[in-house]
Amino acid sequence: MKGIIILAVYAAVMYLATVTLTKKEKSVEGFCVGSRSEGWLLSALSIGATWIWAPALFTSTEKAYSAGWVGLFWFLVPNVLCLIIFIPFAKKIRAEMPEGMTLSGYMKEKYQSDGVKRIYLFQLIGLAVLSTGVQLLAGSQILSSVTGLPFWAVTILLALIALSYSLFSGIKASMLTDAIQMVFMLIACGLFVIFGIRQTGVQGIIQGLHGRTGEYTSLFSGKGLEIFLSFGLPTAIGLLSGPFGDQSFWQRAFAVKKEKLGRSFLLGAILFGMVPLSMGILGLIGAGTGYNVVDLGVINFELIQYLFPAWAVIPFLFMIVSGLLSTVDSNLCSVSSLTTDIAGTGDLKKSKAAMLALLAAGILIANIPGMTVTNLFLFYGTLRASTLLPTVLTLKGVKLSAKGIVAGVIAALAVGLPIFAYGSIWSIGTYKTVGSLTTVLLAGFVALIVTRLEVRHAC
Fold this sequence. Notes:
By secondary structure, this protein is mainly alpha-helical. 80% of the residues lie in helices and 0% in strands. Helix 1 crosses helix 8 and helix 6 (114-147) packs across helix 7. The protein starts with a helix and ends with a helix.
């Protein structure tokens, strides 16, 4: 009953805020990018909340508990840096295409190629589907155990909650609810850290700095080197390419007030970092107190129950729902904007239908037996890395050919992704790293080589 009440209150707050503070959008452009002049503070809160995927809430605690500050470092630092590195590229695309909506649309116009548009749509939509699946998976694992409802039913319920307000005003609903969610998450995280330290003292954190076993003392030696190769490097590659391969952030680059774009992403990165840092501190406390985890995938939920009074579960669950659904609603808006590259900008019904299709796919993925949050996170991190170098090179003014970009992305997915998948399935760090690097580098190298061959042939 507790979990059901939390979901009902959450849905009511987000829906009422949306219908009260935004207007129902009837045009595709308004639905996808709003007025293109959203305020910097609202945008920063939205950016931070959108980047709080399930791993920010669960993986940060898991890695801090099992690998101490080393594991937390390799998750937290790249997560914050990627949003900061993204800023000049967001400014560039806004300057070059002020009336744009999507990255795939920009690349299509840049190269006058439907092939380039299609390969980018494949990557961007694929990411949105996998991301939605992992959010529903992570949230439903906890809420199902709390509410007693079947796992599959919770995935559907969470999806419908996000859809209810997203259909009303699109990106404006997403950004408004993101801001509300982010404020609540920051308050909850701060309180959890404060009460956690009061329970165990600073000594609890200090004793957990080297992980549950006390073996993780360095970034690049001993056990720390193992973490770097198996988790740190592939995670850094996937995260640093994150915003570049995620339409949600390009969409916000087109929606924020142009003059405040850089400020919005910088503050968004800082606000975001507070959440996984707080969750990581809980993991350190758990390791320091010698807590024996039952399910490492939801260790922060276990620690909340272990360290705090029973009532603390309520704000924690509300925070979990906020964090996960902020990404789900951003994905919904993302795919609605990507639909304009397929169906044009005149049919809002098709954009909304794409939202329903995305949720259906996400629900199916979340219900695949044996699926885990961390493996999905690393997998789609590699997927979005496939377009990183072609996008960066294009925005930096490097002249590539359309055939080169298509060949590069296909080569990256065909070669790098299977290598990474093999490493993930068998937990072999070397293969994960090689797969991640291959995915990033092969796309750029092949694009450059094919472009040069075309130039030579033309001469």
